[in-house]
Structure formats: structure tokens, C-alpha cells
Amino acid sequence: MVVAFQDIKPSAFRHYLVISVEHIATVKDLRRRAEDYSLVSHMLNVGQTLLHRDAPHSMEYRFGFHQPPFNSVDHLHLHCLALPYTPGWKRVKYLSLGPLGGFIEAGKLLEKIKPLIPISKV
User: Fold this and answer.
1) What is the pLDDT along the chain (122 residues), one digit of tens a residue?
2) Which position among 15, 66, 77, 79 bears the catalytic label?
3) 57 is catalytic
4) N or C: which end of the chain has fewer CB within 10 A?
5) Tell me, what DSSP letter sits at residue 118?
6) Cα 24 to the chain's mean position, in Å?
7) pTM of the model
8) Do strands 77-85 and 102-105 pair parallel, antiparallel, or not at all (unpaired)?
């Protein structure tokens, strides 16, 4: 289960946060498990739905998570951004720093936590 709301200090034209109700501190606590993969997939789906509804004319969307040590809150939350960044300098907060952390795109995270055993469709 997740909750979504607008960021109180938006970094883009539209900026939502989608958070898990269950406490998960950071992306580093996610594993290659069906439940983790399903949670992140659901978070992404909720964020995409919100942005396509509220910012349908945006030319670019970004969806991702800050990784330690660059996360400001120890509770898993997906940033859903309809660009442009406002102000423009805030784009630096959403750069990937490779092995150092930084921002990881939701799709990249899903690749990392995809279960090795296929997920059965119910």
C-alpha cells in the first residue's frame, strides 16, 4: 500500500512523492523479492498516473529515488517529477552518481531488484 502527495518543496513543475505505508528505510533495504518488486512497480504506476493526469503536456517526466548517503528522509519514497525543474539548478539533486549513489531511476531500480524466479500472474 502507498500514499501519494505533492512535495512541499517542489523541484519541478509538478513534483509528487509516493511513499510506502510499510516502513522501509531506503532503496538499500530492497531485495530481489517479488514483494519488493511489486511495491516499487506499484509506486511507479501511481506516480505515472498522477503526472499524466496533472501534467499531461509536460515534455519529460522523471521517476526515481535518492540513495544513501544522499537521501534526506529514511523512509522509502519515489520522486515523480514533471519537468522543467524549478528552479533549474535543482536538477543537480536528481543526478546519478553511479557507485556513489545519488538518484536512481525507478526503472533501473526495478532491474536491480527483479526476482530471479519469474513472478506468477494471479
Assistant:
1) 999 999 999 999 999 999 999 999 999 999 999 999 999 999 999 999 999 999 999 999 999 999 988 888 999 999 999 999 999 999 999 998 887 889 999 999 999 999 987 666 65
2) 79
3) no
4) C
5) P
6) 13
7) 0.91
8) unpaired
